[in-house]
Amino acid sequence: MKRAMLLLVFLIGVGSMVTRGQNVRLNIVLHRAQSLTIHPQQDKITLSYSSIEDYKQGVHSLQAAHLSLFSTEAYEVKVKLANSEFISLLDGPSLKASLTGIMVSAQPLVKDAAISLGHVNLGTRESVIISSSQPSTGSTFDVTYSGPKGQELIEFASRHQSITMTNDIMYSIETR
User: Which of 23, 53, 55, 146 fits a 20 to 30 Å CA distance from 132?
Assistant: First the structure.
């Protein structure tokens, strides 16, 4: 009986020495986030007209993996020209010209049924080039810039030996 009592006292003592654990609450705070990045080595696009065929057919420049984006919600990528007129990079007084018919289109590197694509005629009003009904944890797009064909460019080029006209293209990402 003494042994049983001694064992009982020992078990009660060991039980009281065991400390109870404490809880830690882990909170995870999720914020909305969107990011649109242009490939850093593709920040200047040149559409060069150097032959009769270029003026007859127009010119194209495919920029591989040009746009990368991340969005925690459905999104739209919009594009527009920063200025209504292109300006020349000549020494002396700048020439200005309203050049129309420049097209921009995008293709995802990985096909996704949730993505809709537009073929945009660049102007000073924003146009949707990419739209998705789903978030994206990282999508990359090839972008093709297409210069117009036609008489307007021929007439402008005929007045100059060689001329470079410039404008900025602005991309933005917004919640859909």
Answer: 146
| 86 phi, psi to nearest 5 deg | -85, 145
Q: How far apart are CA 97 and CA 86, in angstroms?
A: 5
Whether the CB-CB separation of 135 and 73 falls below 8 Å is answered with yes
Dihedral, 39, 173, 140, 62 alpha carbons, nearest 10 = -60
pLDDT tens-digit map of 18-53 = 668 999 999 999 999 999 999 999 999 999 999 989
What is the Cβ-side half-sphere exposure of residue 156, based on CA atoms within 13 angstroms? 20
